[in-house]
From TrEMBL:
Organism of derivation: Linum tenue
Main location: Golgi
Domain Exostosin GT47: 31-306
UniProt cross-references to InterPro entries, sorted A to Z: Exostosin (IPR004263), Exostosin_GT47 (IPR040911)
Phylogenetic classification of the source organism: Eukaryota, Viridiplantae, Streptophyta, Embryophyta, Tracheophyta
Bilayer topology term: Single-pass type II membrane protein
Similarity-based family: Belongs to the glycosyltransferase 47 family.
UniProt-listed PANTHER family: EXOSTOSIN HEPARAN SULFATE GLYCOSYLTRANSFERASE -RELATED (PTHR11062), XYLOGLUCAN GALACTOSYLTRANSFERASE GT17-RELATED (PTHR11062:SF255)
Recorded superkingdom: Eukaryota
Location(s) in or outside the cell: Golgi apparatus membrane
Molecular function via GO: glycosyltransferase activity
Pfam family, one: Exostosin_GT47
Protein's name in the database: Exostosin GT47 domain-containing protein
Length: 375
């Protein structure tokens, strides 16, 4: 059975509105619970109302190709006929190439699209018979698409030369810079009685399962850690207000990889001013260079690669509490200031925000960065 996503993608993809307490009440909702893979719809809605948009292709420096590839992939993931599964992607590539003279102007280099799922979902190769390839379709392997730039929530670390990491959508979608500053003040002044916290569920097997089990164990053993066990209480973990409450009470948030390398929770923690503790470089460092500082130690802690966290005989190699205790309070405050300053550029402004909203959001950063890459 397929999950009904309709309630999660209303309001331009932002989902259902939330009531989150801020310093200054707002007339319009600015807090929502978006589906974590809804970035395609949110980005498209922002583009339709973006001040840089033009309907005259002769004046355009960039061409946006609005394709909801993630939603299409989800609907076709169980299709056993690969030709049928790939058909829409192939038709899209052919259609875009036929848009002359604009495609030929730079052979597609000034065209881009946004995909709300990981790159792996669009890189099925079919090269090796008998080898399981988890990519659902071949969109990112099509020659025309390889000429474009493609924003994805998770890029392929080694093969994604034209892939650019874009943040997962979190809960905050402001209209104005004053709303952003109000939230930044609240985050900066939040009382954080816990050294660290962990919000997550167990996995059945593999490296991800071992590391999550270890994090749960260490957190439950520490009086300085706040644990939200999503296996035991999934309803709390799906409640954005509960997630924010835990993160805003913590100085550090443990962020193991998700089902793939990346995890939306990283952006939830940054929104809450909670310093992310990472266990794989591909969870953030190799993904979101347009959005996060080059100096990774300025905003995050990297403890150890997943597979090195626990030795072969099951003995613990890293004591998380001890490692985090080594970071002085002055350094923590310095890092939190960096994180608080990052909030605007990691936020998707509300699609109905005016062109003079007063801050650069995810979409603005994407466009300005892409212009520099293309030109």
């Amino acid at each position: 059975r397929y999950r009904n996503l309709c309630p999660d993608v209303v309001n331009h993809g932002l989902g259902q509105p939330l009531s989150v307490e801020a310093n200054t009440p707002t007339k319009e909702p600015i807090w929502f619970a978006p589906y974590q893979f809804a970035v395609e719809e949110i980005f498209h809605a922002r583009m339709l109302n973006h001040p840089c948009r033009t309907n005259d292709p002769a004046r355009a420096n960039l061409f946006y190709v609005p394709f909801y590839g993630g939603f299409h992939m989800s609907s076709m993931g169980r299709e056993t006929n690969y030709t049928a599964r790939d058909e829409l992607a192939v038709q899209l590539a052919e259609h875009v190439e036929q848009q002359q003279p604009w495609w030929g102007r730079r052979n597609g280099k000034d065209h881009f699209m946004v995909l709300g799922r990981t790159a792996w979902d669009f890189m099925r190769s079919d090269r090796q018979q008998g080898v399981v390839d988890y990519g659902s379709n071949t969109l990112l392997n099509l020659p025309a698409v390889r000429n474009m730039s493609v924003f994805v929530v998770e890029r392929h670390p080694s093969e994604g030369n034209n892939q650019l990491g874009i943040p997962y959508p979190s809960y905050f979608h402001p209209y104005t810079v004053d709303q952003v500053r109000d939230w930044q003040r609240k985050v900066a002044g939040s009382n954080r009685p816990y050294l660290f916290s962990y919000i997550g569920a167990r996995r059945k097997e593999g490296v991800a399962a071992a590391i999550r089990d270890e994090l749960m164990q260490q957190c439950s053993e520490s009086e300085h850690c706040m644990l939200l066990n999503c296996t035991a209480d999934a309803s709390k973990c799906s409640d954005p207000k509960e997630v924010l409450r835990v993160m805003m009470a913590s100085r550090f948030c443990l962020q193991p990889r998700g089902d793939s390398f990346t995890r939306r929770s990283v952006f939830d923690s940054l929104l809450a001013g909670c310093l992310p503790v990472l266990f794989s470089r591909h969870t953030a460092y190799t993904q979101y260079q347009m959005y996060l500082p080059e100096n990774t130690t300025s905003y995050s802690v990297f403890l150890w690669e997943d597979e090195k966290m626990i030795s072969d005989n099951g003995l613990r190699k890293v004591n998380i509490e001890e490692e985090l205790m080594k970071i002085g309070s002055g350094k923590v405050e310095e890092m939190r200031k960096v994180v608080v300053d990052l909030i605007p550029r990691l936020t998707f402004a509300h699609p109905n925000a005016s062109g003079d909203k007063g801050f650069e959001d995810v979409v603005d950063v994407a466009l300005s960065s892409l212009l520099r890459l293309v030109y």
